[in-house]
Write a structure and sequence with these properties.
7 strands; single chain; 26 helices; mainly alpha; two-stranded antiparallel sheet
Length: 697
């Protein structure tokens, strides 16, 4: 059995993604959990409050589960199928049961407390202290201190939450997949750029219209971002925009895919869990593993909201005036499905920039070359293709090796760039495959090297053209690579705090958002922006326009993030899930102070808000803004050094590498930030970068 089940291979350099099939999941996971259960019992029997008798065997157990379950969950995100869903659903309760059993282990908990209280405590490294404190905290949050009925109740809640969040995510994927609009009349999609027409025809071919062409159709529009966004931004047909917008807005909010009740149950269970653990609400539980506190989050969100509001009101007035001057019949009554369309027209007029016309300058291979050249300049590492070294799950996936200045490998990563709506969930993410670890080193090496996934959902190549990206897609790739760099360039050898592990969640977006700033750095951008056919560099005047347009509608975009963060906090602090106010009432109430144009009464965006109902951002969505304060301030260190001073950039880059990218979870994020910046963070740089400082009268 084990011979033929890739999930049970005792040893591999890289996960056998190409061989794992849904039929392997049930037997593979059950066998693994039985073995880990045995190892856990052994550990508990012989546990002593020492690194070798406690932390190392524990790291081996948790790592095995993380790696194998991580493979399964990763395949579910990029290669979903009914069979895989059914298999995961069946073994999930066993996996949760084992995690609870591990998290609630009294012998392990007591051994960590004994290390904390021993006379050797002061001689431990910072990283080891952080591991011990984190393990004690996690045990308490896993219910180690609960007895009998309370523990049983707690475990029931955890099982139920795991099931509900999984179902939430599946409903969003299915609802997104379900909408298809077939268009045969070219007049109906007037305004759509060539790339969008090409994609719509390619989608039509995949749905059985084998003669579809970009020129003559038929075309199929879906709610997948590369299809949905161009319609909202460019389709002149207002009725089409409205139809597609409304479909997007109510995803997973009706019929058998309705997430409303799931959300209500999730919120009830989270509150119940918080109370069992002795907290007032779920946000307090969330904050135990963050830099911030509930009060400081509310304070920051309000500060940013107040700074953004007048700018957003002006954005709306500018849009109305522009639509009126353009002779638009809807100018006096702009609806949600008009905003993206008219902002694109205003941006084109004001800055003479057309997003679509920029695409030929951003061919994926060139963008990656420029990104890797930047990593080399800032951090002294080189990235080389290593396709064929590791098995992959799809032919589009690329594999890379990261080497240091002495040409030794320090890490590897997979990159899965294109959208595949039928099997891959939307969005973009980075995830851990292996963490750097001394304990798990093999083949006579001193450490196991870190390995990461980078997954995006950008426009696939059409015909013989490479993937031509929007500027936003370029920023997304830089963002995800920032996460990957923190994971891959870590110098921590303790697996529990290596890379992004053990980093407080509201600090984890620092390197990713930091990397986005470089998309506006002249040398960096001009090095990647080469026309895919002629090789011509993006003209400098277009670069200047891009920079000028950077803060176009910044107030509006800032408020949008603040609406998401505020509704998340509200649902997890003051909201009573059993009360008379519905989740939609809460959202509408928050929208009154975070959205200039009131949401439609039928707005059900919460039903697809996967970040907080199926991801790790519950009572944590504010982390994007919190970390943006850190990342803007970190980038301002490079501005202070002089962005055109190569030597200063290099020195500052090495300092960033040796602190933010190297220290992982081994020191608190505030200490790491101060080590890099020489002082505590301030929101001034963020407001300045976004053009949101008060306008002088």
């Amino acid at each position: 059995m084990a011979d033929d089940n890739p999930l049970l291979l005792a040893d591999f350099d890289f996960p056998p993604f190409d061989r794992v099939e849904p039929r392997h999941v049930r037997p593979g996971m059950r066998d693994l959990l039985t073995r880990l259960e045995g190892e856990l019992e052994e550990l508990e029997k012989g546990v002593e409050p020492t690194w070798g008798k406690l932390v190392e065997p524990l790291e081996r157990i948790t790592d095995r589960l993380d790696v194998i379950w991580g493979m399964v969950q990763h395949l579910k995100a990029v290669k979903d199928s009914d069979d895989l869903r059914a298999a995961v659903e069946e073994v999930q309760p066993d996996k949760v049961k084992f995690q609870l059993r591990l998290g609630q282990s009294k012998p392990i908990y007591e051994a960590f407390k004994a290390i904390r209280n021993s006379s050797d405590w002061e001689s431990l490294s910072d990283a080891r202290k952080r591991i011990v404190q984190e393990q004690i905290k996690e045990a308490v949050l896993s219910g180690v201190a609960l007895e009998n009925e309370q523990r049983e109740k707690f475990n029931q809640i955890e099982q139920e939450l795991e099931k509900l969040t999984q179902k939430f995510s599946e409903n969003v994927l299915d609802a997104t997949k379900k909408f298809e609009k077939l268009i045969t009349d070219k007049k109906e999609i007037e305004g759509l750029p060539a790339t969008a027409l090409g994609l719509a025809a390619q989608t039509a071919v995949s749905k059985g219209h084998e003669n579809a062409t970009a020129e003559n159709g038929p075309w199929v529009i879906t709610l997948d971002a590369p299809s949905f966004m161009p319609v909202m931004q460019h389709a002149r047909n207002r009725a089409l925009r409205e139809e597609v917008y409304r479909a997007y807005l109510v995803r997973a909010s009706s019929g058998e895919l309705d997430n409303t009740n799931i959300i209500n149950q999730i919120l009830k269970l989270r509150l119940e869990k918080a109370k069992l653990l002795g907290y007032k609400n779920y946000a307090e539980v969330s904050m135990t593993q963050k830099m911030a506190t509930v009060e400081r989050v509310e304070e920051l969100l309000e500060k940013l909201r107040a700074a953004s509001w007048d700018h957003a009101v002006k954005d709306m007035e500018d849009l109305k005036t522009f639509a009126k001057d353009s002779g638009s019949p809807e100018a006096n009554d702009l609806a949600h499905w008009d905003l993206n369309f008219w902002s694109e027209r205003l941006r084109e007029t004001k800055y003479d920039i057309n997003e679509e016309e920029l695409r030929p300058y951003f061919a994926l291979p060139k963008v990656m070359d420029g990104l890797f050249a930047l990593a080399n300049k800032l951090f002294g590492v080189s990235v080389e293709p290593a396709d064929g070294l590791a098995p992959v799950w799809h032919s589009d996936v690329k594999f890379y090796c990261v080497k240091d200045s002495s040409n030794s490998p320090v890490a590897y990563f997979y990159f899965d760039p294109y959208s595949r709506p039928s099997e891959k969930r939307g969005g973009a993410w980075m995830n851990v495959v292996f963490s750097r670890s001394r304990v798990l080193a093999r083949n006579g090496l001193p450490v196991r090297l870190p390995v990461a996934h980078m997954v995006c959902n950008q426009t696939p190549p059409v015909g013989d053209k490479p993937s031509l990206m929007t500027f936003r897609e370029v920023e997304t790739v830089f963002h995800e690579f920032g996460h990957a760099l923190q994971h891959m360039l870590t110098k921590q050898d303790e697996g529990f705090v290596a890379g992004i592990r053990g980093v407080e969640w509201d600090a984890v977006e620092l390197p990713s958002q930091f990397m986005e700033n470089w998309c506006y750095h002249k040398d960096t951008l001009l090095s990647i922006a080469k026309h895919y056919e002629t090789g011509e560099t993006l003209p400098e005047e277009i670069y200047n326009k891009l920079v000028a347009a950077k803060n176009f509608r910044a107030g509006t975009f800032s408020l949008r993030q603040i609406r998401f963060a505020s509704v998340d906090m509200e649902l997890h602090t003051t909201n009573d899930p059993s009360g008379s106010e519905s989740i939609y009432d809460v959202d509408r109430r928050v929208a009154e102070r975070t959205q200039v144009l009131a949401p439609l009464p039928e707005d059900r965006f919460l039903c697809s808000f996967s970040h907080i109902f199926a991801g790790g951002y519950a009572a944590g969505y504010y982390s994007y803004k919190w970390a943006e304060v850190l990342s803007a301030d970190a980038f301002s260190a490079f501005e202070d050094a002089g962005l055109d001073n190569d030597k200063a950039i290099e020195e500052t880059g090495r300092r960033f590498r040796d602190t933010v990218l190297a220290l992982g979870g081994g020191k608190s994020p505030l200490e790491v930030f101060v080590a890099f910046r020489g002082r505590e963070p301030s929101p001034e740089a963020l407001l300045r970068h976004n053009g949101l400082l008060p306008v002088a009268a």
